């Protein structure tokens, strides 16, 4: 009897750990079989290129989610901060390098605005960022008067140039993921971010500076969003009003697919974020190859978010049961 | 007279509606363990939370070696060298044992990277010291409660601490783990550390501590070296001598009118195979120390906590019939232990609080609208009957005194008029006159035919109210005694010392 339970637990444990890999493998196999040109280096290269901005923004989102919170304004931060850079370049003749530094500073600043409202004014993070989601985009639209702003040649070049056959922004995104993974796994800050996801009261009792860690996390997420925004703007070659739109939700879906729990304190940047983002991008790309209606992707994406979150909730519930069984044995 | 290493001087702390600590002076010496005793809500945890920087006192100072120090946050406390092992464990389930131990103070190399080797080494040393067989890499969520408690204790042993507060550390430990803990505490004392030990198990006091200090209702009521005070005296100090209205000998002894029968009630790891019968109009006392299972069983009966097995019968038209969840909901009222946490809707009015359990009867016929006049009428009636002191029935419950808050809860259940009413520490934190008033109400509703299960930490209250006592110890009912049993016997049984139980049985 005990053995049967143990066997069941092992399957459960395996799915807990590698479920997201199984899903990705399934997606790759399905599209490889049904779409002829899906499985090729060129396709994968352009696929991961398209995914690069999301990789960075999703990593920022992951840090917020590790603390058990959400920031749904990240796409708007990406938009507004790059708008400021675009306006500086176009209307005020700033060189791209200086403009991008300003973009990054603004990314951090906008993150700090969210952090300030959540941490010091004690507003629910979802409500806060629902507000800034709209407000930040609104400011950007005013600044640009909702015109597209074309990027100078050198910026466009960054968006399309390659190193060793792989797009430059992909290298940058991967480099950032490695750095962020290090911060998450090997620094006190990263650990305390995870601790926050276990409950703020407990953290306070343990002497963690809860407010400082939380505030820093929002700044980090804003900063990363502005990097994602720059990547996205460079790829498109201009600042468009659609930049970053809906990206926060795609980012949430991606990280949940990557095994990061929305309940906080659970999951990893590598390989979690990478796998989650790639899985979503594989599906989008695969549907394209099948010649599916482009709007179908929206539907599929929504379905995936729903399924991934149900799985997350189920996981949290089953985990409770696993502990109970362990208690019984002792 | 020696100068105490730690002196908490004239500490006072007030929470809304209750004076948690009043003029408490508490001394602790180096190389000694002092037991801090007291019933539920006596103020032990509040006092230690003051020392641990979690609560700031309204009055009083803390001195170490005669020097006044400032403790404003838990971090201040830990910098001074105060290690606090909380009763409610402060653990991070999704993280490893060593992360849990080092989370607020990681050893780092090159300013940034966490040094896992040092962590693993120190963590293993502490776990070995505690005789704990888990690995530093285990996740907390995979550990049983005993091991979790050991991690919590291990955290205190890391670093350069001088004062160790243990708040009921043994409540979830096995015998072997307990022995290891006793050994570790002995070692701490040998090294000249100061140990403050909070417990409900009095035999542990004699095993571990040199001195005791007893709190009751936020005040120091006694103390001294363990040679000076005896176990029975300790319990008496803890549970108090406040005389409240006595029902006299006019108790119910009839056993032919059962109203509820509970059998084989079990919740794994909490209580096991609980059987008892409650009779009409009876006041049945659940007696035992905190953690003995008395509250847990009561919560299990009404379904507030999940149970693993239970058979329940409730009387219907004079005959016991298997109870459905619906009957339980309709027939049993529960006054919970923490009225501010799970008893009252604090920001709502007296009226709304009182109607809350009775909404089904308050709605107008054939609609789902609340009948306001009926609601007002019932509320007025019970405010009057229970003598609740309020400005008007729209007053917000949060602003009431503890006694009046408790009466609002009683009023809520009396509106429903359940056949069984469970009351868990109904007089906790109330002043003497409010206690007496609640006691009078309890007697009155029992007389009117409601059966009552009463839980209280105060022996005199139990003695003066109950018709029968079920004594709980370690999740079991160890005795079923009718009124007339001596106070000493009840106290002895609850104290949990095995010898005492046997003495009792031999009588």
Secondary-structure map with pairings?
The complex is a heterodimer of chains A (330) and B (507).
Chain A: H1 2-34, H2 41-66, H3 74-92, H4 96-120, H5 125-144, E1 149-150, H6 153-160, E2 162-163, E3 166-167, H7 168-186, H8 188-196, H9 200-205, H10 210-236, E4 238-239, H11 247-257, H12 269-289, H13 294-329
Antiparallel strand pairs in A: 1-4, 2-3
Helix pairs in contact in A: 1-12, 2-7, 2-10, 2-11, 2-12, 3-4, 3-5, 3-10, 4-5, 4-10, 6-10, 7-8, 7-12, 8-10, 11-12, 11-13, 12-13
Chain B: E1 6-15, E2 18-28, E3 32-38, H1 44-51, E4 59-64, E5 67-69, H2 74-80, E6 82-85, H3 97-102, E7 108-109, E8 113-114, H4 116-129, H5 145-157, E9 163-167, H6 175-190, E10 194-198, H7 202-208, E11 211-216, E12 219-225, H8 231-239, E13 258-267, E14 271-279, E15 283-287, H9 294-302, E16 309-316, E17 319-322, H10 325-331, E18 332-335, H11 339-343, H12 350-355, H13 359-362, H14 372-385, H15 402-416, E19 420-424, H16 432-447, E20 451-455, H17 459-465, E21 468-473, E22 476-482, H18 487-495, H19 498-506
Parallel strand pairs in B: 3-10, 3-11, 6-9, 9-10, 15-20, 15-21, 18-19, 19-20
Antiparallel strand pairs in B: 1-2, 1-4, 4-5, 7-8, 11-12, 13-14, 13-16, 16-17, 21-22
Descriptive report:
The complex is a heterodimer of chains A (330) and B (507). Chain A has a single domain (40-329), classed as ABC transporter involved in vitamin B12 uptake, BtuC (Orthogonal Bundle). Chain A is built from 13 helices and 4 strands. Chain A has helices at 2-34, 41-66, 74-92, 96-120, 125-144, 153-160, 168-186, 188-196, 200-205, 210-236, 247-257, 269-289, 294-329, and strands at residues 149-150, 162-163, 166-167, 238-239. Chain A has a two-stranded antiparallel sheet with strand order 1-4. Chain A has a two-stranded antiparallel sheet with strand order 2-3. Chain B is built from 19 helices and 22 strands. In chain B, a hairpin with a 2-residue loop joins strand 4 (59-64) and strand 5. In chain B, helix 14 (372-385) packs across helix 15 and helix 18 (487-495) runs antiparallel to helix 19. Chain B is globular, with a radius of gyration of 25 Å. Residues 497-507 of chain B have low confidence and may be disordered. The A-B interface holds A 186-188, 191-192, 194-195, 197-199, 202-208, 264-266, 319, 322-323, 326-328, 330 and B 54, 73-75, 78, 86, 90-95, 99, 103-106, 108, 112-114, 141-146, 268-269.
